[in-house]
Write a structure and sequence with these properties.
heterotrimer; A mainly alpha (about 290); B alpha/beta (about 400); C mainly alpha (about 350); A: about 290 residues; mainly alpha; 2 strands; B: about 400 residues; alpha/beta; Rossmann fold; 2 domains; 7-stranded mixed sheet; 16 strands; about 45% helix
Chain lengths: ~290, ~400, ~350
């Protein structure tokens, strides 16, 4: 009985971690900046490949993962400076630009790096509860998801950067008038979003097949979570993750993966119908 | 006058001969156009690239040896980018605009189904070179890859005898997976075994925590792994990480996606599969073939069965054309109807079955070792594609242009 | 005659002057005589590309004119395609019956659009959320149809056939007096699709320049103000959504009949993103730009794919990126402005471009 309960909790934590880690980067770029970033998957892929390259060079995995996340962030800042900053006044056109980037990057990687790489293997082994055996590394992923949420909260609520970033997102002109260098805020936020996407890739790199298009696997889940969460990352993403993880875990367990996948999409439709501004919009309205 | 007349006649004969001599090489130089549709971009470039390479290698070899009936092969390749609409566009383009003599290609069954109706309106034969779920009974289509009766009828009895009667099937949730799962169910029933669990996974899913737990709960003797695509391959890594170490069988792993090369050991240990080709085949003919392939494509990650089949398909086409002395579909089919459409392929001698237009294959059972090396466990010899013939498909008599499955048989 | 032409012109469309209509007439003549100067393959291929412009025109109406960002054109494309298959296979349709099936399939999709539209618009879902819900709808449909491989998934004798797609439906046919039915292929299909595109393009021009169209644009600019002026914004939005989605449905039926095949992938990613790409590339706020741009982009992508093989996707991405950075209003509108600027009568200049 305990094993059964533990198994359910473990599966929930697993799905939750996947949703949160996939969505965190997008929550900043899409949720806060309003840029529909179709190249989100490619930032994830960037994190994955850099991590794998570092491991192949003999680095310990955690260091490799940090470098993976960091390089995705740097790529993000470079992209923001050259391209994205022209698109802030027409967010829907960002679909075209980022989709174009996504096409170029995936196919470019396929041509440069080949169609597949050898995996690096999952660390930390397994443990047993009752009749079931579990991968220990998956608990690390759950811990990382919690860590990302806590980190986001601290950064945006407790640092000077956070206050200025939130001010910029709410009213850029006013923030600028008050002396905030909004250009830097945008660049830093975009970079942070990209770095979080890279972190997601770096964390999942050991557990998955390595092909240039693998970032796409995360796309649907990340958009779904961000939209259900609503515009406010701090308020929305965590409850959205919990809600969707419950729906998906239950459907996966009782009706199989296809029900889980379709159920997730239907949950989005229903949630948006009931709460047109997402969970965070609803929560902040209740506070008022 | 007679003298003059003779001269004129002589000149006439001379001129005619010269004309014929001039025309003959011109005709001989007219290349045979081979239309290729293989995905070399996107998700399944992993499989499409070796297929293109296989066709290129075969065309180069055939052209070096003098072509087909003195005519060179010209490959016309288009990349449909995994898009079924593009498959249709490009099939039309190759058939109507470029007027190819034969069409080869398609990876997923969906792409094959997309182009079959288009090929069917022409006089051009179509070669599908993948292993697949079987059952296509269509006079325009010639299937070169292995089919379920060659793969499952050999693998499953052996797995049951060796590991036990309880199987858990995980399969991709689309036609290939569902029909293959159907085959597994049927064969297990005949063998007195039991399918203790069956799970269908949508394409593109990459997380398998729940699946792994479901398998542990059902506690099977072995797993039938019919997961498809790079995302779903992550199952092996995640199962290994969760210490799920149960023997596995499959009709698509190792020889096709070379998972044993892509994942670090021991994720694929205890995987078993039956195949007509895998790079580890170790006969003199196979070794020679691999040497030629590696000389042309030194960076090939793995010479998989799809690439190999694409290679043999062109040789099969050559044999058909040379025996028929024509490139017309109807004439090629007359050769197939004799049952003597055979070639000596690197795997051994293979022939096209007249009733179903599928290919007999030399099947071998392979197992993956803990260090991911591959051993041949059992050699089944030549196995014919008999199933379609048994259920009543006979293309020498009737062309239903349909695809049958164990639960959807032709109407009697 | 004057009244008819008058209704086609107005503030909501670019190109209202004599020079525009002269160019239009010239283009039409070229299109009419084109089959005489080309090979059967190319004619069929142009007809095939034109099929998709209808879906783009529908999106332009919804997104460009009414401000509803629908990411789900493919849902209606697919639903109509499958409906056509189900109807045509079960009725064993031929001749005029196939056209009846075409209308029936569009009706099914329009009903679906009306339901979904009611659900969303009356729920005050708007902006990017509207896009995400329609996107989720099309993905859910793709996932559902993808797992219908078993024989139990059938309506009558028409099997959905899972990921491999539904096959076996007849092509469209026109009944012909005293003769055999004309199967719509090659030239016949070309003229049929051309006539449809022409009729729908002119019809939409008349629509957006009418009072109804002005209300749609006012909703795009400021829904609240439109409401305060006394319009029931929701009804106008719903009408626009149903018309736009029905055009996607028409594309879907034509595509299905053309290839005698409709797969679930036609509703999934990346198919769902394509209409957005075409319309955004062309300039979503004008019908002429959408029509011309979509056709050119489709042709360009196809040509790039044929001739550059593995580099195709890189080139396509590059084209999109450059367009967005250099010509913000959309490629065709950008070119149109340039030409109009040379001609010195820029009527577009009176209109402000507001991001939708």
């Amino acid at each position: 009985m305990f094993a059964e309960i533990f198994s359910i909790l473990y599966q929930f934590a697993d799905v939750f971690a996947f949703l949160i880690l996939a969505a965190a980067g997008l929550a900043i770029i899409f949720g806060m900046m309003g840029i529909i970033n179709m190249a989100h998957g490619e930032f994830i892929t960037c994190g994955i490949y850099v991590t794998v390259i570092c491991v192949q060079q003999g680095m310990p995995l955690p260091l490799a993962q940090a470098i993976g996340a960091l390089s995705a962030g740097l790529v993000g800042i470079a992209l923001e400076r050259t391209i994205i900053r022209h698109l802030y006044h027409r967010p829907l056109d960002s679909i075209l630009a980022t989709w174009g980037i996504s096409l170029m990057v995936t196919q470019g990687m396929l041509l440069l790096l080949g169609s597949s790489w050898r995996g690096i293997g999952t660390p930390l082994g397994s443990f047993q509860v009752g009749d079931y055996t579990f991968s220990t590394y998956r608990l690390v992923l759950f811990g990382a998801a919690i860590g990302v949420l806590a980190g986001l909260y601290l950064v945006f609520m407790r640092t000077g950067y956070g206050i200025m970033a939130r001010a910029t997102m709410q009213n850029a002109e006013m923030a600028q008038a008050l002396g905030v260098r909004t250009q830097h805020m945008y660049a830093a936020s975009f970079g942070m979003g990209a770095a979080l996407a890279g972190l997601c890739g770096a964390l999942y790199a050991p557990t998955m097949t390595l092909i240039p298009t693998m970032g796409i696997t995360f796309i649907i889940e990340s958009f779904v979570t961000v939209v259900v969460g609503g515009a406010n990352v701090l308020l929305g993403t965590a409850p959205a993750g919990i809600l969707l993880a419950v729906v998906r875990t239950a459907l996966n367990a009782w009706y199989g993966q296809i029900a889980g996948q379709i159920g997730l999409l239907i949950a989005v439709i229903v949630v948006i119908r009931l709460l047109p501004e997402g969970v965070s919009g609803w929560l902040s309205r209740r506070e008022r | 006058m007679a003298e003059v007349g003779r001269t004129v006649r002589r000149v006439g004969i001379f001129a005619a001969t010269t004309l014929a001599m001039a025309a003959w090489p011109a005709l001989a130089q007219q290349p045979i156009k081979v239309g290729l549709l293989e995905d070399v971009s996107g998700d399944i470039a992993l499989m499409g690239k070796p297929k293109l390479n296989g066709s290129q290698l075969a065309a180069e070899e055939i052209n070096k040896a003098g072509g087909i009936m003195g005519r060179k092969i010209e490959l016309l390749h288009l990349d449909p980018q995994m898009d079924n609409a593009r498959y249709q566009e490009f099939a039309r383009r190759l058939l109507q605009r470029d007027k190819v003599d034969v069409l080869i290609g398609g990876i997923t069954s969906a792409s094959r189904e997309a182009i079959r109706p288009i090929v069917n309106r022409t006089d051009v034969p179509y070669f599908y070179t993948n292993q697949y779920e079987g059952g296509v009974c269509d006079a325009s289509t010639i299937s070169i890859g292995a089919v379920p009766e060659q793969q499952f009828s050999t693998l499953i009895p052996w797995m049951v005898e060796k590991f036990g009667k309880k199987v858990y099937t995980i399969a991709a949730d689309y036609n290939f997976g569902q029909i293959s799962a159907e085959w597994t169910r049927d064969l297990m029933k005949k063998l007195g075994g039991q399918v203790v669990g069956e799970e269908f996974i949508p394409l593109g899913v990459s997380q398998f925590g729940q699946t792994i737990q479901n398998i542990q709960r059902a506690n099977p003797d072995w797993i039938m792994a019919l997961n498809v695509g790079a995302s779903q391959d992550s199952f092996f890594e995640q199962a290994a990480a969760a210490k799920l170490t149960i023997p596995m069988g499959s009709s698509i792993k190792v020889m096709l996606g070379f998972e044993h090369k892509r994942f670090p050991p021991p994720a694929l240990a205890q995987m078993h599969a039956t195949a007509n080709w895998f790079e580890e085949v170790d006969t003199p003919a196979a070794a020679d073939f691999k040497k030629r392939w590696r000389a042309k494509f030194p960076n090939e990650a793995y010479i998989n069965d799809m690439g190999y089949n694409a290679y043999t398909a062109l040789y099969m086409y050559k044999t058909l054309v040379e025996k028929a002395k024509s490139t017309k579909k109807a004439d090629l089919r007359k050769v197939i109807a004799t049952g003597e459409a055979c070639i000596d392929a690197p795997e051994g001698k293979i022939c096209i079955d007249p009733k179903s237009q599928h290919t007999s294959h030399h099947m071998r059972l392979i197992g993956v070792n803990p260090d991911h090396s591959v051993r041949v466990i059992k050699d089944f010899g030549l196995i014919k594609p008999y199933w379609l013939g048994e259920i009543g498909c006979d293309l020498t008599k009737k062309d239903p242009k349909a695809q049958y499955t164990p639960t959807s048989l032709p109407k009697k | 005659m004057r009244g008819f032409f008058g209704s086609l012109n107005g503030p909501q469309t670019l190109g209202n002057g004599r020079s525009f209509w002269t160019c239009f007439a010239a283009a039409l003549v070229v299109a009419l005589v084109y089959p005489g100067f080309s090979d059967p393959y190319s004619v069929g291929n142009v007809a095939y590309l034109l099929i998709f412009t209808l879906m783009a025109l529908g999106l332009s109406l919804m997104w460009g004119y009414t401000g509803m960002f629908s990411f789900g054109q493919t849902a209606f494309f697919g639903v109509a395609g499958y409906s056509y298959g189900v109807l045509a296979i079960n009725l064993d349709a031929s001749g005029a019956m196939t056209l009846f099936c075409l209308l029936g399939a569009i009706a099914v999709a329009a009903l679906f659009a009306a339901l979904l539209g009611y659900f969303l618009i009356w729920g005050r879902v708007s902006g990017v959320f509207f896009g995400i819900v329609t996107f989720a709808t099309t993905l859910a449909l793709a996932a559902f149809f993808g797992q219908t491989a078993g024989p139990e998934w059938a309506i009558g004798t028409a099997r959905f056939n899972g990921f491999n797609g539904m096959i076996g439906m007849p092509p469209l046919m026109l009944p012909w007096v005293g003769e055999e039915d004309i199967v719509l292929e090659g030239n016949a299909l070309y003229y049929f699709v051309l006539a449809l595109v022409l009729a729908i393009y002119l019809g939409l021009r008349a629509l957006v320049n009418s009072r109804f169209g002005n209300v749609l644009v006012s909703i795009r600019e400021d829904p609240l103000r439109a409401e305060l002026l006394g319009y029931d914004v929701r009804k106008y939005q719903l009408a626009s959504f149903v018309i736009g989605s029905s055009l996607a449905a028409l594309s879907g039926v034509l595509y299905t009949a053309w290839g005698q095949f409709i797969p679930p992938a036609s509703m999934g990613l990346p198919a769902a993103a394509m209409p957005i790409i075409w319309v955004a590339f062309s300039g979503r706020q004008d019908l002429t730009a959408t029509l011309a741009g979509t056709f050119l982009l489709l042709l360009a992508f196809q040509t790039i794919t044929v001739y550059s093989q593995q580099y195709a996707l890189i080139l396509m991405g590059f084209v999109l990126l450059v367009t967005v950075l250099l010509v913000p209003a959309g490629f065709i509108i950008g070119i149109g402005r340039l030409l109009a600027g040379f001609a010195g009568r820029d009527r577009a200049g009176t209109r402000q471009d507001v991001p939708a």
